[in-house]
Structures are given as structure tokens and as C-alpha cells.
Amino acid sequence: MRICVLLPDEPKAEQAGLRIRYQRIAAPLAELGHTLSLLPIQNLTRGTLGAHDIYVLSKCYDARALVAMRAIQAAGKRVGADFFDDYFSQSHDSRFARLRYWFREVVAGSDFALCSTPRMRDLVEQAAPTLPVHLMNDPAHNFQPETLRSLLREKLEKMAQTRLISVLWFGIGDNPNFPVGLRDLATFGDALDRLRHRGFAVHLKILTNQRAMTPRALAGLRRLATEWHLEEWSETREQELLADALVAFLPVNAQNFSIAKSLNRAVTALAAGAQVLSTGFPLYAPLEDFLYTDPLVLLADLERGMPRLRADTVDSLALRFSELADPVHEVRRLRSFLADIKKASVRNHPSAVAVVHGRETLGAVHKLAQRLGGLSVASPLSSASLSYDVRFSVAPESNDLVMAISAKHAPELPVPWHGDGEARRIKLRDLFAAGDLPDCFDGVVALLAAGTPGALVAMYPKLMQLISLALRRVFPQITCFYSEQARDLAWYVESPRHA
After folding, report:
1. Which of 33, 64, 142, 354 makes a 20 to 30 Å CA pair with 282?
2. What's the pTM?
3. Up-side HSE of residue 143: CA atoms within 13 Å toward CB?
């Protein structure tokens, strides 16, 4: 089986989620005779669609995913998406309207879904009850029980001699939409103060991405009473500091985005021989036998030399990891799931696709749509200068909308608009039969001609509906998707589909 994971761009391959979930299973998959490739979605072409059996859309949160999904299925292949982050359940947050639209269209059109937590699985199943969903646990990296036993003994001996509790907080320290990471550390940091009892000192090391090191974040950290040292994250440095740390501090806030996260950080810390102290939401409850929520309980266990993770509990941890974080076990489960998907019948979707661009769009969406044989359509609001296949514009002198179709696609048009080798211009009043013109038509054209911001918002939904109806008149059976990056307009694409 040949599996291809489609990424939004090349650098994303190094992000934590992709590195953990896919790169760690590549070798076990190869041992079973399968291949796993990571490919930027922009590099997908019609000529290469036959190179893989199964495609997975990963973090491609724009209309390229929708176009690619249909092209892959038209080539007789299976395609699904992974849902590892919750940007979709915040139903009253207008910032995520575009992502909720994306989520709805992807789950409606995919052959399967991958999730890393039961919470995300439930969210997908609520949106698409019949869609096959696979729960894919994050695999542990380089878990070696014998080495771990020796390391745990060394850490306890060092603590007993120095009376120093070395603590590590590691991970992505920011998110453009949610208060996470370093904000959680600053909020829950008083738990570390409670470890400074009975003659113990505490030193905190913070390992995070450079982007998170903002003046505001650093100001929050300065309120910590515990001494701390900040470093920029790298995979190598994470391994080094975890090997040295006695405790990993992993606080979790209770917002939807945070409580849908996987067990990865706790698994990583435990595999490296760090005691886990996690305050706030009980995200890591499946590992509760090996972690702490109360710093005083942790302190008492450390003082008597009997922490929950110690040499004689490593076998129990190994058993728990075999259920939740074993790479070979996860690969076998994934292989079985995808084999069933591969055998399933291909979904009968119309292959013709059009992407309608709103006021703000991405040139990458336009390019991929054309490369995969779809139509790139400019609405009257589109400001990007691109070589569109179809362009809609307002004709105020005739109170009409005009659809200009490129010469390339004119031969595809039905009579009487069919043309050979030359572009076609069709007035929408001529396109719709007498009495068939939508009631909103005159109002939309008038508001477009006015061009004021308030008018733009008022007519946006009806405009997109008119464009979809017109496209389906001249390109029968076409499916319309939308590309709109403007937050004040993206709320519309979240509404029920109309094309």
C-alpha cells in the first residue's frame, strides 16, 4: 500500500504533529511492505495522482484540499483527512467560520478520517455519522525500558544528593488564535512553588519556539516565583533536557482547543524518564497511574524515593504504552483500517469542480485548481490579478452581471453558448429563462454597483448563490467550492451549501 500525506507546504513536515504522527511510523510501515510519503499539496498534478493508493490531507485548511479531494477520487483513489486540532467546535467564534466551512465540506466528501483523540473522533462523527474514522495514537519515540530503568535510578540519586528538583516545560509556546503554551505555564506556575519545601530547590527550564518569545509572554513568565531559564526548541535539545529533567510540567487549560490535544507530550516525557506533573484539565488521564496532579503528592513521593515512575514500574509503563503508544501496534491498526478503505467502492462524486474566489483568496488555490483540471472563477469582488477561467463582473449600464469564459473552456459550453477558440461573454439576464431569474438578482447588482462596505456584506451570500447557479447552467453537474480569506465575509461559507 502506498500512502501519501499531503501537506500545506514543505516546512510543515518538520512541525511536531507531522513529525510525531507520520515520520515515526514510516519505518514500521516499510517493514510491513508499505510506503509513506510526505508531499506538499501544491506539487500534486493529474499526472502523479496514480502514484499512491491512499491520500491523507493534513493541515491543508484552504480550498486546495477540496479541489485535491475531488481530483484524487476522480482518479479512482481514496482520500481522507486528519483532524488532530480542534478549530471547528467554536461555533460562536467568527474567526473560524472559514475553517468550519472547510471542515463541513471535507467530512462530507472524504472516504475516511484520522483522529488522535476520542474528542476529535466524536466531533467528526457528529458531522458525518457514516464516515469511517480511525483513532490514531501518537507513537512513543525510542522507548527503551532497560535504559529507562537506569536513567530513573540516576535521576533519583542526583536529586537526593543535590536536593534540587529540575523541571522542564517544553512545546509550542503560542498559537495565533488561542491562549496556550507559555500562557498556561504562567497561569499554572504556582504549582511549581509548592515543590520548594523540605529543603528542596526548584529550577525550571523552558524550551519553546522562538515565535512564542514575545514581550507579553516573557512578562507573564517574570511573574513566576520559580527560577527559570529559556531556550529555543530543537528536537535534539528536547531530548537532552528531558534526559536531565526530574519532572516535566505539563499544565492544560480547559478551552476546546486544548482539551482535544493528544497524549504526546506526556508520553514523550515518561519515555525519557521524567515524572509528569499536569495541573488543570485532566488531558493525560489515560496515563494517570504514572503522573501527578498535586505537586505536594509528587514532592512526598520524591522525598521517600518512590515516585510513580521508577525502575520497578517501567514494565507497567511498557504495558500501557503497548496499548496507547507503540509504533508497531499503531501501524498494524492503521494498515488494517486503510486496507478496508482501499477495498471500499469509490464514492460517486461529480469530478467537475469550480473554485469561486471571494474578496481575499490565495494564488496557490487558483494554481492548483487549474493544474488539477478545475475552474478558477473570479467573483466581482476578487481583487487578485490572476488568469481566471471564468470571471464575473457587474455591468451597471444594463443592471446586469456578465460571465466571461476563457477561450480554453468555450468548447465545453452547451448550445447556444458553445464556441470554438474564442472567449464567450454571457449576460446573466440572457442565461436565465424568462421568469427564472432569481428574485435577489436586481438587488445584488444594485448593491454591487454601490460598492460600499455595508452593501458588500449585505449582498455577499446572494452573490455567491447567483454565481453558483450561473456556473451550473453552463457547466452542468459542476460542484462549487469557495475560497474566502476575509474574516468579515468568511462567515457566509459556513451556511448550508447552496450549489
Report:
1. 142
2. 0.91
3. 24
**Which distant-in-sequence residues (6+ apart) come within 8 Å of 91 by Cβ?**
100
Give kind and range of the element (H or E) at residue 367. Answer: helix 363-371
Which stretches does DSSP call E strand in 94-163?
112-115, 133-135
Q: Cα(241)–Cα(205) distance, rounded to whole angstroms?
A: 8
Check whether domain 145-319 has CATH 3.40.50.2000, yes or no:
yes
Strand partners, 7: 40
2-139+329-343: CATH, from 3.40.1790.10, 3.40.50.2000, 3.90.1640.30, 3.40.50.720: 3.40.50.2000
> How many CA atoms are closer than 13 Å to the CA of 427, on its beta-carbon side?
10
CA 34, distance to chain mean position in Å, is: 25
Domains 2-139+329-343 and 145-319 share a fold: yes
**Average pLDDT estimate for 246-275:** 96
At 165, is the secondary structure helix, strand, or coil? Answer: strand
Mean pLDDT of the chain: 91
> Are 325 and 318 in contact, with CB atoms under 8 Å apart?
no
In what helix (H) or strand (E) does residue 320 lie, and over which residues does it extend? helix 314-324
Other beta carbons within 10 angstroms of residue 298's beta carbon come to 23
Which strands make up the sheet holding 400-405, listed edge to edge? 424-427, 400-405, 390-395, 375-378, 353-357, 479-483
Dist. CA 13–CA 6, nearest whole Å: 10
Closest CA to 358 of 499, 472, 473, 468: 468
Query: In whole angstroms, what separates CA 263 from the centre of its chain?
Result: 17
